[in-house]
Each structure stands twice: as structure tokens, then as C-alpha cells.
Design brief:
10 helices, elongated
Length: about 325
């Protein structure tokens, strides 16, 4: 995963500073989200201790206002930085490709077709523009939020914290295994996408001939083969990675249930106060939501990772 981040930072070029700023704002957003958990804890503590009055309600309200308004402002600022980075990193890369094409040798187009070049400049760079900065920042933000959550739970109760850490560690192992498997088939996926773009462009350019000689269904065999190749490639990727996705979900669900059972058993034996047990039950529904977003982000980032190196393979010296 570190290698994947390094490739994206290299691809970003001058926009790296905007991605870094967005990550910093994402960390602030993660800290602000913790105020919602604090509001729930104050309410649970007041209910279990039998305290009456409006002090707890005011404290919870202030925590919620900080979380809502602070989170909205920081998230908005982060999205603006991500949009700027995505647009200009793609624009700079397209300009770089165009400048490179001005000086390529004559034999370049014998080895690389128009479909490959168009696929890199449109589909490949387009996916990076719209997806990679946002997903990258969300991945890092999810990791930061998960780390903050885990540390707070360890301080709150080390026994529950160990369960959380075990669940996160197993989940990250499953994500790492899926990433390695997807990296092994990324080349074939990129190849099928390039072949499809090439076939579509060739069909569009020869549309007048197809219409004149009524070659629909006969002359478009290359396009049909490209569509079938792309479909088969996508289906194979889905079949290959689905077990890993199911494993990730199962790990998080088991860890969440383990937290609940541990809280109930500890409270029943008198080793945990009622407020802490109730708070553990509440947190069990929240603590793994961010690490789940991390796994989803890695899955979404996969096409962008292969895309970020596609232009280098095309224009390698």
C-alpha cells in the first residue's frame, strides 16, 4: 500500500501539496468526529448515574454542534482541495503526453495504436482525475480516524481495545491479500480496457463504410470481440476478489460481536461499570465503519493505480 501511495504522489506532480493539505484537513475532520462519540458518552454516563438537569444536555449539544459544523466546514475544504488536485493533475498529465507525442520517433505508432493513446488520455487519466484524489484522501482519513478510535478505546478499556486492534489487524491482512491478488491481474484488466477503446474508435472511424456496405453484425466482429474480452475480464476480476471482500466483512462482523459479548460478560462479572458496557455496545457499531471505508477505498483505488502507471508504460523510452 505504501508503494501505491508513492506512485500516486509521483503522478500528482505539482498538485502533491494540495493532496497533502487535504490529508491534513481530513485529520482535523477525524478529530472533530470524535465529539459525536463524546456526546453519546456524556448522555450514557448521566443516565446510568441517575443525574438530572440540563447540564449534560448542554454539554452534549455543544459537542454535537462542534462535530456537525466543524465536520461540514473541514469536509467542504478538503473536497475543494481534492477537486483542484484531481483536475489539474490530469490536465498537466495530458499536456505532458501531448508534448511527448510531438517528439516521438516515426516507429512509435507501429508499436502503439491510436486506441492505446486515446485510452490513456481519456479513460485512464479521466479515472484518475475523478477518483484517485478523493479516494486517496478518504483512505488516509479513514486510517487516521481508525487509529484515533483505537487509541481512545485502549485508554477507555484495554480489554476491549485489544479486541478492536485484533479485528483491525485481521482486516488489514485481508485487504493486503486482496491488493496483491488484484495487482497480479491489473495488467490484463488494463489491456482489455485499451482493446475496447481501440475497437470503438476504429468502428466510429469506419462507420461510413459499415453503413455503405451493410456490414453491421459482420464487419464489427473486432468490436464484439473487444466487448466480450472486457466483459469476461471484469467478471473474472469480480469472481477472484469476491471471497476476499466477504472475508473482510466477516472479520469486522465477528470483531463487533466479540466486543458486545466481552462488554456483557465483563459487566455481568462486575469487572466493568454499566456505563462503560453500554458505551462499548454503542461503539461496536461505529468503530469499524471507518476501517470499512478504508477497504472500500482500496477497492476503488485499484483501477487508478494501474492507470497511473499506464501512461509510463506507453511512453517509456
Amino acid at each position: 500500500m505504501i508503494e501505491a501511495f508513492r506512485k500516486i504522489w509521483q503522478f500528482a506532480g505539482k498538485e502533491t501539496k494540495n493532496i497533502n493539505k487535504s490529508v491534513a484537513v481530513g485529520f482535523l475532520n477525524a478529530v472533530l468526529q470524535m465529539f459525536q462519540v463524546a456526546a453519546i458518552y456524556f448522555v450514557v454516563l448521566a443516565l446510568t448515574s441517575g443525574e438530572a438537569g440540563g447540564k449534560t444536555a448542554w454539554i452534549a449539544l455543544v459537542c454535537e454542534l462542534v462535530a456537525v459544523f466543524g465536520g461540514a466546514i473541514s469536509a467542504s475544504f478538503s473536497k475543494m482541495l481534492q477537486t483542484h488536485a484531481g483536475y489539474f493533475m490530469a490536465a498537466d498529465r495530458r499536456i505532458s503526453i501531448a508534448n511527448r507525442l510531438k517528439s516521438v520517433p516515426m516507429g512509435f505508432f507501429n508499436e502503439n495504436s491510436l486506441g492505446q493513446i486515446s485510452g490513456v488520455c481519456t479513460t485512464v487519466v479521466g479515472s484518475i482525475e475523478s477518483m484517485v484524489p478523493m479516494v486517496l484522501v478518504n483512505i488516509l482519513g479513514s486510517l487516521i480516524t481508525t487509529a484515533v478510535f483505537a487509541v481512545l478505546i485502549l485508554v477507555f478499556d484495554w480489554r476491549i481495545g485489544l479486541i478492536v486492534l485484533a479485528g483491525i489487524a485481521l482486516y488489514l491482512c485481508a485487504v493486503s491479500a486482496m491488493e496483491k491478488k488484484s495487482a497480479a491481474i491489473a495488467g490484463d484488466t488494463q489491456k482489455s480496457q485499451t482493446a475496447l477503446v481501440e475497437a470503438v474508435l476504429e468502428t466510429i472511424q469506419g462507420m461510413s463504410v459499415i453503413k455503405s456496405f451493410n456490414l453491421t453484425g459482420k464487419g464489427d466482429k473486432k468490436l464484439q470481440d473487444a466487448l466480450e474480452y472486457n466483459r469476461r475480464s471484469n467478471v473474472e476480476v469480480t469472481k477472484l476478489l469476491t471471497p476476499y471482500t466477504a472475508l473482510q466483512e466477516a472479520v469486522l462482523q465477528i470483531a463487533s460481536v466479540a466486543m458486545m459479548l466481552a462488554a456483557i460478560l465483563l459487566w455481568n462479572s462486575g469487572a466493568m461499570p454499566l456505563a462503560s458496557a453500554l458505551m462499548t455496545l454503542v461503539v461496536s457499531f461505529l468503530v469499524f465503519s471507518q476501517v470499512k471505508l478504508f477497504g472500500m477505498g482500496v477497492s476503488m483505488l485499484r483501477p487508478g493505480l494501474s492507470a497511473s502507471s499506464g501512461w509510463r508504460r506507453l511512453f517509456r523510452r
